[in-house]
Write a structure and sequence with these properties.
By secondary structure, the chain is an alpha/beta fold. It folds into two domains: 150 residues, P-loop containing nucleotide triphosphate hydrolases (Rossmann fold), CATH 3.40.50.300; 75 residues, no CATH class. The strands form two sheets. The chain has a six-stranded mixed beta sheet with strand order 5-6-7-3-8-9, sandwiched between helices. Helix 4 crosses helix 5.
């Protein structure tokens, strides 16, 4: 039986002396589409940064398995205003996703350039390759950043609110692209505030905050229905 790609054991997370997540344990299997949901301040972004190795847990551990290494992981973070205004070409932005595999080499090799071209085509931004990134629309920028993340890795993608600030049409398009990546075998771990969309696309749900849940989408829906029924019974 294959190992989980990520195993979290008894994680406690927090900052500035405050614990916001305690004794969290779950496993991410290859091919999952995991949506992390919960209230603001529940620790969603802190958990993602911990899984990426960008923040140390207060206690517990994160183990990469199934042959997965940190260089196999892509990350699409939330953009800042400064990042949106970055004066580089689309091709340069996408190619920068290959930097983790370059070692001490000062230049990109042929394979890395071909990977960038392939992922630009995959995300539908190949015709924008020579355009300045800051001149693109929000939806185009998100496609470019997703192509960059795929250059970093094609096994597992972390996505932190990937449709934040996008209009409904572009949002639907981004969810379609992410779903197609998952169908092609890429494991997805995505933070979202949109529970309805999470339930439409995810295979598994991790709910942080006032209550904890980790399991399949169907089990999460069943628990939500049971909780609603109990609340209705109490107020009847």
């Amino acid at each position: 039986m294959p190992q989980p790609q990520i195993l979290c054991e008894n994680l406690s997370l927090g900052y500035e002396g405050e614990t916001i997540v305690k004794d969290l344990s779950f496993a991410v299997e290859a091919g999952m589409y995991l949506c992390i949901v919960g209230e603001n301040g529940a620790g969603k972004s802190t958990l993602m940064k911990t899984l990426l190795g960008l923040r140390a847990p207060l206690s517990g551990r994160v183990v990469y398995g199934d042959g997965l290494k940190k260089r196999d992981v892509g990350y699409l973070s939330q953009q800042t205003d400064v990042q949106r205004d970055f004066p580089a070409s689309v091709r340069e932005i996408v190619l920068s996703g290959c930097q983790g595999r370059m070692g001490l080499r000062p230049f990109y090799n042929r394979d890395e350039k071909e990977t960038a071209e392939r992922n630009m085509a995959r995300m539908g931004v190949a015709e924008l390759a020579d355009r300045c990134y800051r001149d693109l629309s929000g939806g185009q920028q998100q496609r470019v950043l997703l192509a960059r993340a795929l250059c970093a890795a094609e096994k597992l993608l972390f996505l932190d609110e990937p449709v934040s600030g996008l209009d409904p049409t572009v949002t639907a398009d981004m969810y379609r692209i992410i779903g197609e990546l998952n169908q092609a075998g890429v494991t997805i771990i995505m933070i979202t505030h949109d529970v309805a969309e999470a339930l439409a696309c995810a295979t598994h749900i991790l709910h942080l905050g006032s209550r904890f849940f980790f399991g399949t989408r169907d089990d999460y829906l069943r628990e939500m229905r049971d909780a609603a029924s109990e609340k209705e019974a109490r107020t009847a």
